Structures are given as structure tokens and as C-alpha cells.
Amino acid sequence: MIVLKSMDKIITDEKKIDELLSRGVEDIIVKEDLKKDLMSGKQLRIKLGIDPTGVKIHIGRAVPLRKLREFQRLGHQVVLIVGNFTAQVGDASDKTEKRPMLTRAEIDQNLKDYKSQISKILDISKTEFVYNNDWLSKLTFGEIVTLAECFSVQQMLARRNFKDRYEGGVEISLREFLYPIMQGYDSVAVKSDVEIGGNDQLFNLKAGRIIQEQYGMKKQSIMTSSMLEGTDGRKMSTSWGNIISIVDDPHTMFGKVMAVHDDLIIKYFLLCTDISLESIKEIEDELKGGANPRDIKMKLGVELVKLYHTEKDASLAKNSWVETFSKGGIPDNILEIHTEVEKEIIEVLIENKIVSSKTDWRRLVEDGAVADEDGVVLKDAKEKARNVILKIGKKRFVRIMVK
Fold first, then answer.
1. Beta strands in 117-269 (DSSP E)
2. Cα separation of 20 and 38, whole Å?
3. CA within 20 to 30 Å of 387's CA: 78, 109, 188, 298, which one?
4. What is the CATH class of 250-326?
5. Which range has the top average pLDDT, 231-235, 320-324, 335-339, 349-353?
6. Banded pLDDT at 172 (limits 50, 70, 90)
7. Which part of the chain has CATH 1.10.240.10?
8. pLDDT in tens, 117-165
């Protein structure tokens, strides 16, 4: 059911609208139409769907949320769809193999803290917060058949990930073909004027336009945002463990930022902070002029921690990192472990009771909680032992020495 909110004053400042339509934006369908609508003074309904596939929202998922906030600040109505039905099906947009179905219990567990996390970015009091189980679970088989008629198997198999899987003999579930139909129907249910998503979502976003047309509605505009790479350089993904969560504690968040690849620094400033475009250009010029990327990443870390915590937290996190890694703030009584033969680091640590299990070690590595004396975060849980000082968590230090 649609809940009507009181209309805010619509801002039609062309400079703000142009930045909204360009910063971190990959593509817009159709840009001229959307700009015309934004300049008209009409309040638009801006849709974003989020499937609760994990407990924590990471800063990659925060990119479209931050774009929603820009629309919200211009007075438009944000409609946030929590995909408590579609999460059971699973979006195959970026998957190289069949995505497992989530149970309702898993989805409910993931949802527990979603609203409080999203409130770190959006004004929840001005956000329509809806759940697509409310309408998708009520569709009849006949209605689903009618919706399925809007698409062909050839269209589905032409999608890059499905094409690769089909040609490689990797199983594709019929259920996965239903996902874009469901996401498209969401646009009908909430009467969407604009839908936002990552550029890997383009097929699903276009499905909304097709299904709206089927229902005799005006086709929504589409805005795709640039995808954010994680700490290992791949697309940021909960399943890959390369995320920076918006609820990470300040020290963890800052440490993970320091592990980001140098060539992603500007992209992170652009997509993940409120720094002005003029300031980002100055930072880019600094890097081109030979500035140490580590120093620029410290600025990035401060900006990111400030967004989700406080300025004081950001300062403390930076100082702690500098003390530990830049100024050699390593305890004098550090534990030394000697190993005669080359082993994986995890084997050495378990043998010496530094960590309890391989599962515990993998969790620490995935959380970005292990770094060397240079502040470089360990990314490979199976890395071979080497001569190194490791900081594990906030307080544990160990020196590994390999003969």
C-alpha cells in the first residue's frame, strides 16, 4: 500500500540538478526527460530496492542510498523497497553461479537492524519504507504468466552472466529468470517515476519500464550509479568479504580504508564522501603531483569515519593508526614465533594458539582486522608465512620469523 507523505518544497536549482545527474552516475534513461521533470517543480517518486542478503550495509550499497538522499534534499519522495520477497529468489545480475535461496528466517534476521543503518544516510521520517512481500506474495499464477509474457528466453540468455553460464554449462535456475519480472513489478506497485540501481542492474531496471508500459503507466526514468570496488579490487560484495560496512567501528573502518588500492582513492572520494567536486579535483592533482597515496588515504579515512560516526571518532582512529603503523607503535614485548619450514600463516598461528581455528582466522581477515607493520591489511587467509609483524584485531601483535 502506498503511503502519501506531505510534499516538501521542490528545489529546481539547475546547478544542483546537474550535479545530481552527473556525480557518480554511469547512465540515465532518458536524461533529457529526467532533467525536464526535475526542473518542472513536480515531486517525483524515486525508487530503490535493497535485498537484505546480509546483516550489514556496506559503503558500496550506500552509493545509491546517497544518491537517494540527493533527491530527497531536492524535495522529492524517496521510496525504499526492502526486498524481503525478492531476497528469497536472489538477483543473479553479478553472479557466475546459481545463487542459493535464503529462508524467511535468514531474511528476518538480516532485516533487524536495516532501518537504523539506513537512517545514517536518509531522513527516515521523509522516506516511504515498504516491503515487496506485501504485493509479490499475492500475485496469482495467472498474473505471473502475463508478466512473463513481456520477456523472452533469448533476452534472458543474452545477459552477460547468463550467457557465460549457459555457454560454460553452469546451471541456471528458472527462478533466476523471474527476478527481473519481480523487480519490474515493484515499479508498478509503488508508482515509480525514477529508479536507481548499480550499472549491473540495468536489465532489471529496464524491466520496470516494460512492465509499467504493460499496465498503461508512464515509463520510469532510470539512473545507474558506478559500481564500487572492495578492499581487494573486486566489486564490493558481502559474499566476498571485501566490504567496508557503514556500521564498522571507527578503527576498523579507518584501517580498511587504508587497505584500499591506490588507484581507487579518487573513486572512493567521489562515491563515498561529501567532499566537493572542486576539492576532489585538487586531491587528484596532488596525487598526480607525487603526493604519497598513504597520506591521501588518511584524508579519505577521516572523511568516511566522520560520515558514519563523529569527527572525534575519525581523529582518534587516524591517530591510533598512525601510532601503530607509521610511528612504529609496536609493543616491546611482542611475541615472536619461529618456524623452520614454509607454512600458511594460519597453520603457524593455530599451532601457537594465537587464533582458535581457521574459521576464526578467515573472519578476522575478511573483516580487515589483520595488518602488517606497514599498515597493509592482509587479504588472503591462505597466505604463506613470511618474516612479518602482524597486528591481529586491536591489541594482539605477533612477529613471525621464517628460516
1. 127-131, 194-198, 221-225
2. 10
3. 298
4. mainly alpha
5. 349-353
6. confident
7. 250-326
8. 999 999 999 999 999 999 999 999 999 999 999 988 888 888 877 888 8
CB 254 within 8 A of CB 128: no
Quick one: which H or E segment has residue 335?
strand 335-339
pTM of the complete model: 0.77
Residues of the chain with CATH 3.40.50.620: 14-228
Fold (CATH) for 14-228? Rossmann fold (3.40.50)
Cα–Cα separations (whole angstroms), residue 280 to 267, 271, 287, 379: 9, 11, 11, 28
Buried b (16+ CB within 10 A) or exposed e, 50-75: bbbbbbbbbbbbbbbbbbbbbbbebb
Q: What is the pLDDT of residues 26-51, one digit of tens each?
A: 999 999 999 999 999 999 999 999 88
CA dihedral 291, 297, 303, 308 (to 10 degrees): 180
Q: Estimate the crossing angle of helix 277-288 against helix 265-272, to 10 degrees.
A: 170
Domain 335-402 grouped into CATH 3.40.50.2300 = no
User: What 8-state DSSP symbol labels residue 330?
Assistant: -
In the block, which residue shows the cell 593508526?
321
Q: Specify which residues 45 forms β-bridges with.
A: 77
